[in-house]
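Quick one, T. Sequence first:
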Amino acid sequence: MNKDDSNEVVHLSRRKGQLAEFHHGESMSEELRDQLLVHVYLKFVRQTYEAFYEQLEPGFLEFANDCDVPPDKYEPILENLFWWRLLYEQALEPSFTHFHQFITHNNEYFQEYPVLKSWFLNWHEAVPAYYFVGNQIGKNGFVAVEIETEKTVEIFLPLPAHQPPKQGSIVTGILLPFCDNLYFPIVPFYEFDIRTREDIALHLRHYLEELSYESDRYQVFVRIFSSLLKVEGISLTNRK
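Structure tokens:
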């Protein structure tokens, strides 16, 4: 096989959907990385906010108020609750059309980049979780340990404006897989005040054990999140 024949095989195989499955541990070309982040991830995030955020925001604000969260910490709470709600709806009702419509409306694009369609379907499996933040990797990455499973993950932040959480802090967020075994959060993590780390860790372990029999991980998340926000507030008040 000569060089031109080899290039043609690669070109054709990329366009066959059944041959272009996303694999978390494999590398991607720079072109595919950029396409994934700009033309799938960011495009879907923008369209989703435009379609749903305004109607859902009042409920998330009520949640934050009920947990006595200071207004300067609203944004990461509201953003994570927003994606929690949409992913939960998708889990409860697989026919929920928003995810399917994105694929349908971008069918021609996904025919050209079928591996990105395969990647996009991973959104259906994303569930919020809690992480202990370890060492930083470069300017926009860090190692973390998922507290419930004790699984170590390497995380990068896809946008320069997103700042890595403090080493040693406890955060919560929703991760998506990337290439080379990396993950990235849909939106910035909610970072519990590092001064409350011991209280948060103690209560989090208790809640995870207490609710371990529950099969609905989305409901478990929001119940624990509500409780931990209150623990954080009480812990900070006691330090004054």
